[in-house]
Write a structure and sequence with these properties.
Number of strands: 8
Strand order of the largest sheet: 1-2-3-4-5-6-7-8
CATH topology: TIM Barrel
Strand content: 15-25%
Largest sheet: 8 strands, parallel, barrel
Helix content: 25-40%
Structural class: alpha/beta
CATH superfamily: Aldolase class I
Oligomer: single chain
Bound molecules: 2-phosphoglycolic acid
Order of helices and strands: EHEHEHEHHEHHEHEHEH
CATH architecture: Alpha-Beta Barrel
Number of helices: 10
Radius of gyration: 17 Å
């Protein structure tokens, strides 16, 4: 089971102290097998990596540039730079970045440049409300997967996160039955495209300590990408504890 914390544009140096309790939890036998990954803003990558040095918790970035080499791209960070400070993961294709102009094509370039650096990619896909209402979800998901993963050879370093846009930060989550179906559809598309037996698909969007008990009943889900509720260790720990029981 994966528990990935997406801190978005939240947090300053003092925020990294919040991981202390999560480190303690991760060392308990019962939780040894789970994978906890923090994706803080770029500014906190290094301090967080240092803080987590003696634990099995890993750290990733929330995005990267398409280009792997140094270049004149003001404000950008690339996969090589993330790797050089000890980052192991990178979120690509988050809907908040798609809204800012990340097309499937651009996302594909970012994924390939991250894989080249041996980063593990958390590849976000999901439909918006209009697409859901127009029953376009499966079509959208398929096109995001096929185009986003174009020329990618296998899923060894890819985890897909299904994040319906209408569920992100809204407090609304899909009905269990619908969510199970969507995750299975995604796995089917991945299986067909990659002949992979066991693709990892996470769910993200308003996961919290209240709805987690329902979400963990859905056995097709391999973990969670958690935004708001990952910023305070108490909430994050509650979610982990209620999943691993
Ligand atoms: P949320 O965000 O948990 O705050 O809805 C999830 C995400 O955007 O990854």
């Amino acid at each position: 089971m994966y528990f990935i914390a997406n801190w978005k544009m939240y947090g300053n140096l003092s925020s990294i102290n919040t991981v202390k309790n999560v480190i303690n939890l991760s060392k308990k036998t019962k939780f040894k097998k789970i994978k906890i990954i923090y994706c803080p803003p770029y500014t906190l990558l290094r301090p967080l990596i240092k803080k987590l040095r003696k634990s099995k918790i890993q750290v990733g970035a929330q995005n990267c540039h398409t280009d792997n080499e140094f270049g004149a791209y003001t404000g950008s960070v690339n996969a090589k730079m993330i790797k050089s400070v000890g980052g192991k993961f990178v979120i690509i294709g988050h809907s908040e970045n798609r809204l800012e102009g990340d097309s499937n094509k651009k996302i594909n370039l970012k994924i390939k440049s991250s894989l080249k650096e041996n980063l593990k990619v958390i590849f976000c896909i999901g439909e918006n409300l209009k697409e859901k209402r127009n029953k376009k979800t499966n079509k959208i998901l398929k096109s995001q997967i096929i185009n986003g993963l174009k020329n990618v050879k296998n899923l060894n370093n890819i985890i897909v996160a299904y994040e319906p846009i209408w569920a992100i930060g809204t407090g609304i989550i899909p009905k269990s039955n619908d969510l199970d179906k969507k995750v299975k559809t995604i796995k089917k598309i991945l299986n067909k495209r990659f002949k992979s037996k066991n693709p990892k698909v996470l769910y993200g969007g308003s996961v919290n300590s209240k709805n987690i008990s329902d979400l963990t009943q859905i056995s097709s889900i391999d973990g969670f990408l958690i935004g708001g509720a990952s910023q305070k260790s108490k909430n994050f720990i509650d979610i982990i504890k209620k999943t691993i029981n």
